[in-house]
Amino acid sequence: MKALVPLPVLLPLFAVGIKFVLGPRRVRMQTFISLTVLVADTVISTVLLVEADRHGPIVVQVGNFAAPLGITLVVDRFSGLMLAVSSTVTLCVLLYSQSQRFADENEDETGAPLAIFYPTYLLLAAGIADSFLAGDLFNLYVGFEVMLAASYVLMTIGGTDARIRHGAVYIMVGAASSLLFVAAIAVAYAACGTVNLADLAVRLAVVAPAARLAVQVLLITVFAVKAAIFPLSAWLPDSYPTAPAPVTAVFAGLLTKVGVYSLIRTQTLLFPHNRQAPLLYTVAALSMIIGILGAVAQADLKRLLSFTLVSHVGFLVLGLAIGSVRALSGALFYAITHITVQTTLFLVTGLIERREGTADFSRLAGLARLAPVLGLLFFIPAMNLAGIPPLSGFIAKLALLQAAAADGGVGAYILLAAMLVTSLLTLYAMTKVWARAFWRAPGEGAGKAAERQIVMPGSDSVAVVRSAYGAARGIGGRRISTSESYPVGMLGATVALILISLAYTVWAGPIAEYTERAAAELLNPSVYINAVHAIGGTH
Amino acid sequence: MSAASLTLIFTGGLMVTCGVYQLMAQSLTRLVLGLIVAGNGLNVLILAAGGLGPADVLTQAMILTAIVITLGMAAFLLALAYRSWQLNGDDLVQDDVEDRRIARAAHREDLAGDLRTQRAAYRADRRAAREASRARKKELREALREARRELRARARLQRAIAARAEDYEYLEEETESDTDFERPPANRGGPA
């Protein structure tokens, strides 16, 4: 069983190597390899999830080197769950993009993005898996870097004007937060002489409180940037919408969740008695409220969804802030629901773009009559995001609400109110999209395009207008092909994700029990620490 | 703490400071420089964190990894800066969309403010001109009225003179012959 643990990282990396050897011309072979690897990833993660649930955390010292030198990989219930969900989502998005690619053979005259997209995508998958598996702080950093480097390439793929400009912001924010991460590692290493998470957990309990606080605040800041928690979230809605639809989908679903995962992991494991509850309460509430207010103000579907993403990451931080078993369990349930739902919504946006050539819903109209299938595909995840019963979003939010009420503190009640307001405003934002894009009479939204071409006096304002609405013509400055029908794979992948989110609803009982167990395990760090030390740490 | 590790800490700190200062810039090339300097400063700090003993393999491994990552990132960012320069002639990182929206709104507000002041000035000018023309018109009307009054007075005077002259003729005729008794008085003017 232990042999399986490194595979979710290794398989994609090997596949990337093989792909480069094969060269870009053997498209069928390339496709086959990508699909096989990600299917294998999904199966392996699911097996690991079940095993970790049955027998406790699975720990591997890579190459049998002992802990401080060797790399520790750990699968416990939390990381197993995230791993399984993320590999499933990655697989679905891969199917979607493969099908889109086969449908538009003319992607690029040089063929470059074709040759680069899939290897980079697999690297992204490897980075995500490594971040979930990492048992020490430095390996977590490496996992993040692999994932981020891949995401930089995917973000700027094609090298168009809009993508370069928006990508530069994204990359600089990512690079700056990585610097902070290195700083956190340096401080942790100076204070404790180790970067192994289990060892850190033991030693941080006895070091000077000031040193502990420094490590804790640095880590919170780093992961808050990666997870786009409010004061550090401005980069996200600005950069995500310019990327191609499948890329945005997988970023939105997974990258921020990796940040949230690391935040929850480090805070529960390393600082169980020093929760920065007031800080977390504040940022959770602000993320939720300000994020959703931002969403309400948007006219572009992708930007709107990006803002709801910022807003709903607040729910996950909220679970951590309250910190009871029920709250964390709710947060985990919400995390997997949100990964699936947010990815689905971006994929549906991709389908809308494919049909209409835009995702600007002041220009979209009458989709409910023109494309009823799209309506259904959008409606289910949108209602799930807003938390309408009986969908899984409602169940997870209910668990969080109950946890907040059970906590009973003033902060918890403020969060409870913020949660309700956010859900209501999410519903409002979704209804707005629905009323504009789907329910208006066809043709009513046309003619708005001219308004976008306002040119203002002043030296650079023309360029400002052009790049601000660069996504209005083509996506991210790149022309996209449109068609009345949808390729089977794109539709199939979207439907599959919707079915998965419905499965969360149908099997909510067993999943909630599982997340309860995972939360209990998180709140009892000795399980993790003992499992790592039993395998041969420094202690 | 040995002098050597103090030196390391100060060097590292200084490098991070310089790097962070560069990171405040808007040009991608400067950002890359900042990233490299700050990243290497942090590597020095990791070295300081591990102490100077030869035995600490872990710090060296971590630093090497971090160096490789920084190198890759710098290469990618330089390519990005080059591409940006190719496309736009500059390598500036733009402000985000909401910021630009706010800036545009502020610009619009400024323009509207300018327009308002200009319109107010124009209106004041118009009002002054209107006042002036009204005053002039009034003056002219007064003059006209005066002239008319004078004319009328003169006309009255002439009529009076004429009437008196007629009366005088009539009286003279009456004294010449009494046969013309029935003749009505012609052109008797109004009262003098």
Automatic annotation (TrEMBL), chain A:
Residue ranges annotated for the NADH:quinone oxidoreductase/Mrp antiporter transmembrane domain, each copy included: 134-426
Keywords linked to the UniProt accession: Cell membrane, Membrane, Transmembrane, Transmembrane helix
Subcellular location per the Swiss-Prot or TrEMBL entry: Cell membrane; Membrane
Record GO terms (molecular function): NADH dehydrogenase (ubiquinone) activity
InterPro entries reported for this sequence: CPA3_Na-H_Antiporter_D, NADH_UbQ_OxRdtase, ND/Mrp_TM
Transmembrane segments: 81-99, 111-132, 138-157, 169-191, 211-236, 243-264, 279-297, 304-325, 331-352, 364-388, 408-430, 488-507
Top-level taxon of the source organism: Bacteria
Membrane-topology descriptor: Multi-pass membrane protein
Gene Ontology terms describing biological process: ATP synthesis coupled electron transport
Keyword Membrane: yes
Pfam families referenced in this protein's UniProt entry, alphabetically: Proton_antipo_M (PF00361)
Family: Belongs to the CPA3 antiporters (TC 2.A.63) subunit D family.
Descriptive protein name: Na+/H+ antiporter subunit D
Organism: Actinospica acidithermotolerans
UniProtKB/TrEMBL annotation, chain B:
EC class (word): oxidoreductase
Protein's name according to its UniProt entry: NADH-quinone oxidoreductase subunit K
Compositional bias per record (Acidic residues), positions renumbered to this chain: 170-179
Domain of life: Bacteria
Transmembrane segments: 6-24, 31-52, 58-82
A GO term, aspect molecular function: oxidoreductase activity
GO cellular component: a single term: plasma membrane
Xref: InterPro entries: CPA3_antiporter_subunitC, NUOK/Mnh_C1-like
Region feature Disordered, mapped onto this chain: 170-192
Keywords annotated in UniProt: Cell membrane, Coiled coil, Membrane, Oxidoreductase, Transmembrane, Transmembrane helix
Coiled coil region boundaries: 130-160
Compartments where found: Cell membrane
